[in-house]
Amino acid sequence: MQILVVEDEPKLAAALKEGLEEDFTVQVARTGEEGFFLLYSQSFDLIVMDVMLPGRDGLEVLAQLRHNGIRVPVLLLTARDSIEDRVRGLDCGADDYLVKPFAFPELLARIRALLRRNGPDVRVKLKVADLEIDIGSRTVYRSGVQVELTTREYDLLEYLLRNQGSVVSREMLARDVWKESTRATPIDNVIDVHIARLRRKIDEGYELKLLQTVRGVGFVVREGAA
After folding, report:
1. 109 domain residue, yes or no
2. Less crowded by CB within 10 Å, the N or C end of the chain?
3. Residue 127 and residue 152: Cα distance in Å, rounded?
4. CATH code where residue 17 lies
């Protein structure tokens, strides 16, 4: 799981990154603006964010995230421990609130609890090599760059990734993606057109080709050679 830490104090940011990396993949942002950029270019399962940030503070950042429809769980860190401060943080959309100084085991316990509690809403990702799809938001990235797909292209890619490493036949695609009960030549042609378009979008310009055709059998997404 991937965690974004938004913390401007260098020593604390480094300590959080080092400690959390034993269990998670961690990226650090030093400002709210940097945090915004990372959130809109990558997928995270949880955000740990300080309230006192340069520029826009953590509460402003949080309120904007929720306004924009980003529902990733957020754990706020703050030196402010009054009831009013906690209420304001929760009202802005925080999922939990931890007062500094805190014990690292407590932070870990709260993170695990949030991930369990928000399990159904946490983004589910499928990945092969540098290709990643976020099922919750239906977004696709290759080497960190978002790939724009049509609804059908996305459904096709998700199906292939769910079966990555295994060859998927045209019959399977017709049945499970196109929902066709009988396979006929016209649907085969439609599948081939969509495969060609999808291959251009995810493989063109990259040395490593992920969407491969297995002659006479079907298609497969994998890192190795066909």
Report:
1. yes
2. C
3. 19
4. 3.40.50.2300
Residue 140 lies in a domain: yes
What's the mean pLDDT in 144-162? Answer: 92
Is the torsion defined by CA of 74, 128, 190, 166 positive or negative? negative
| First CA to last CA distance, the chain | 30
- Give the rounded distance of the alpha carbon of 11 from its chain centre: 27
Domain boundary (96, 121, 146) is at: 121
Picking from 59, 86, 121, the residue at the C-terminal end of a domain is 121
Within this chain, do residues 55 and 137 fall inside the same structural domain, yes or no? Answer: no
| Distance from C-alpha of 193 to C-alpha of 126, rounded to nearest angstrom | 24
Query: Residue 203 belongs to what domain range?
Result: 125-221
Q: Under a CB-based contact definition with an 8 Å cutoff, are residues 131 and 141 in contact?
A: yes
Q: In angstroms, what CA-CA distances link 204 with 138, 196, 201, 209, 211? A: 21, 11, 6, 8, 11
User: 73-104, pLDDT tens digit by residue?
Assistant: 999 998 877 777 777 777 788 888 888 888 88
Average pLDDT over residues 115-134: 75
Query: Is the pTM here over 0.70, yes or no?
Result: no
- Residue pair 72/84 in contact (Cβ under 8 Å)? The answer is no
